[in-house]
Structures are given as structure tokens and as C-alpha cells.
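Feature request, filed as a ticket because there's no other form

It would be nice if the structure record came with a short human-readable summary line next to the C-alpha cells. Right now we just get the raw output. Example of a typical job, pasted below so the devs can see what we mean:
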Amino acid sequence: MSVVALTKDNFDAEVLKCDKPVLVDFWAAWCGPCQMLSPVVDKIADETTAIKVGKVNIDEQPELAQQFGVMSIPTLIVFRNGKLSKKSIGVISREEILNLI
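Raw output as currently delivered:
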């Protein structure tokens, strides 16, 4: 499954109303650690259909970053049944990401 680009316009439909867990990557193009984490997140999205994976560019969607208290990036948030389930800040391993989910 491919990664969904999330915006304030599609966030409710793609994340909060999704019937499976959603992993959301809050990132920015200028963020080195984000660039390190991005291929790992992309690979997880390609490997499984059990979860949905989305990305929020905080420079383009500052409202979403503020809404979910994202103060540092990269931040990964897992949503289940429309609610924030788990949150991780900084670069983590593939195994740690899968444990979040």
C-alpha cells in the first residue's frame, strides 16, 4: 500500500475514520533525521496492507502538527479507531516502529 500525503482537508477521512491502524509520519524536507526515517516508513507501507501509512509535511500543514502537539520531528503517531494510540519522537528502528503498531 502506498503512503498517503495527509493534509488538513483529508486527515479526518484518511486517518480518523479509517477502520485499520494508521501510522502517521510528521516530517519536513529540511530535517536530516526525517530523511533517514522516511525510507523505513515507506518500506513498511509497501510491505503490509494491515495498516495505513500517511505523512504530514509540517511546513505545509502546521495546523495538524499543532493539533497533535508535534514539537520535534520526526514524530510518528499511531491512530486506532480515530484516537491517538502511541507516539514516538526521533529516529527509531524498523522493529521499534512495528512495535508501535
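Something like this underneath would help us a lot:
The longest strand covers residues 83-89.
The chain is about 35% helix and 25% strand.
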